[in-house]
UniProtKB/TrEMBL annotation:
A GO-annotated cellular component: cytoplasm
Keywords for this protein: Cytoplasm, Hydrolase, Magnesium, Metal-binding
Known cofactor(s): Mg(2+)
Compartments it resides in: Cytoplasm
UniProt keyword Nuclease present: no
Organism this protein belongs to: Podospora didyma
Family membership: Belongs to the PPase family.
Name of the featured protein: Inorganic pyrophosphatase
Class of the enzyme per the UniProt entry, highest EC level: hydrolase
Known EC number: 3.6.1.1
Disordered, as annotated region: 258-278
Length: 318
């Protein structure tokens, strides 16, 4: 029996040991237990809000470091932990941040088309669903499905690919009634947007990578622009799931979309048994913080990374 209910619509089935490459989180509809894909079967728009509110699948809760993500290639796209060099990946904390600053996840039924160059970024999409940063007060859990509204968007250039970060807030959050556009975020949560831009720029530096770059001068675009990005990526997903776009190793398996090439008979889909296994030990010390010298990065983006950052280790209080 599943242990987590998601807004009375979806429940989770966990298999494998957490913090290993075998750990997976599958989704089922709560009313009838039909397995669903968080990429394809969960709708982009929440019907009970008249199509004005988005669904968001949470992958990484705020303040945590384990890099969970929806699998593009596995059938029904379960959430698993990203693997780097054969090991589960954890994002290093960069001073003054601890893990991720927001509840981080994806907007279902969207796709950043890797075959299409965006006119404003000059780069093709990153082949993933749209990323979303939920800035409400509540710390979510991996696999939660939140109802959110878009406030704006930041254009990241990650390894030469367009990687949009949509800023959203849970519609039930106490601040939601005051946040309607990106300017409201700066007004009511001053400093959060600057911290977000800074975080995405430096978070890979401790791993030996150069800092990320931004499209559109690194400025946050407003809700109208964010809505256009979401609509474009929704249209791209429709081409993808209908088989009209090159999809490579992306699994199109779904249980609800009649007439699509990936449609499965839900009565024949057998998910692994639900398990409650003890998490594996984490070899990486998540109590380490890295101080990244921003001035050095500004002066020379190609400078030796060993000279552009100073490592300091701080014991984090529980």
């Amino acid at each position: 029996m599943s242990r987590t209910m998601l807004n009375m619509k979806y429940r989770l089935r966990r298999t494998g040991r957490p913090f290993t490459k075998d750990f997976q989180i599958y989704f089922e509809r709560d009313d009838d237990g039909v397995p669903v894909s968080p990429c394809h079967d969960i709708p982009l728009f929440a019907d009970e809000y008249g199509g004005k509110v988005l669904n968001m699948v949470v992958e990484i809760p705020r303040w945590t470091n384990a890099k969970f993500e929806i699998s593009r290639s596995k059938s029904l796209n379960p959430i698993g932990q990203d693997i780097l060099d054969g090991n589960p990946r954890f994002t290093t904390s960069c001073f003054p941040y601890k893990g991720y600053l927001w509840n981080y996840g994806a907007l279902p039924q969207t796709w950043e088309d890797p075959h299409s160059k965006h006119p404003d970024t000059g780069a093709k999409g990153d082949n993933d669903p749209l990323d979303a940063c939920e800035i409400g007060q509540k710390i979510a859990q991996t696999g939660d499905v939140k109802q959110v509204k878009a406030l704006g968007v930041l254009g990241l250039l990650d390894n030469g690919e367009t990687d949009w970060k949509v800023m959203v807030i849970d519609v039930t959050d106490p601040l939601a009634e005051n946040l309607h556009d990106i300017g409201d975020v700066e007004k009511h949560l001053p400093g959060l947007l600057d911290a977000t831009r800074d975080w995405f720029r430096i978070y890979k530096v401790p791993d030996g990578d150069l800092p990320n770059e931004y499209a559109l001068g690194g400025g946050f675009q407003d809700k109208k622009y964010a809505d256009s990005v979401i609509n474009d990526c929704s249209d791209a997903w429709k081409r993808l799931v209908s088989g009209k776009a090159k999809f490579g190793k992306i699994s199109l398996d779904n249980t609800t979309l009649e007439g699509t090439p990936g449609k499965l008979d839900p009565n024949k889909v057998k998910l692994p048994p639900d398990e409650d296994l003890t998490p594996a030990p984490i070899e990486q010390d998540l109590g380490e913080w890295f101080f990244v010298d921003r001035d050095s990065l500004e002066s020379s983006a190609t400078a030796s990374l060993d000279n552009s950052r100073l490592r300091i280790v701080l014991e984090l209080e529980e």
